[in-house]
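cron nightly-structures :: item 1 of 1
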Amino acid sequence: MTPEEEAVLEAEQRLEEAVQTAEIAISVRGLRNSFGDQTVHEDLDLDVRKGEILGVVGGSGTGKSVLMRAIIGLQIPDAGEVHVFGEPMIGRLDDDEALAIRKRWGVLFQGGALFSTLTVAENVEVPLREYYPNIGPQLRDEIAAFKIRMTGLPNDAGPKYPSELSGGMKKRAGLARALALDPDLLFLDEPTAGLDPIGAAAFDEQTRQLQQTLGLTVFLITHDLDTLFSICDRVAVLADKKVIAVGTIEELLATDHPWIQEYFNGPRGRAAVSAQQKPKRELASGAQAERH
């Protein structure tokens, strides 16, 4: 290969790397998290693509929430790198550029994590007060009311306190707060946990609609198989202290890892598959009946 050809090849490789980087919202490399003598993650790698809903699953104790906390800066890892929208995030709590990145994400913690002494509207206004203290009270109230309606809560939910809400309403209120700053990236930690099947399905549909309407990238921790099958574009599986596989459910089913096979092919996995296929079968039956 001539020097000119080598130069062209190197330029093409740099261009390909730049394109791949531009398409990645979150990049985690070599992450290590531990608590005392217990190592939760070791040499963990993960990429989250822009515009996708990535489901994150794993057995109890695999560190799904720890991974999310490390990405958003609430957990300082022992080693590794975390980049969000191309910016390194570890150890940059007060950095202006890192602060600008943090404004681009919203987080729904388990259970909603609402402040019990604040109303729903006041909870939604917390990020606005923190990052945009110069916004006047009237505009803050208008933004909060809009976000509350956006997540499907009734208009009269704003003045209510968390203790006056159902479990599903608390989740939606937490979601409204997570969307307060018009984020590009949304973190959801077990958003359907504790909800009945109808409420969980409605929350999943709300998540998908918001993701499509707002162009969100969603990092979604869940153990809900219905959620994985219905709205996730890809799924990352945590086991053995790292991400052992990432792909569509069909791609994961082609792997031979015992935990993956047991998780997706167990009774609950088969029930989730059946639930997803039922509307398709009904649609096909209806079309066939119309032809006859």
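cron nightly-structures :: done
The longest helix spans residues 267-291.
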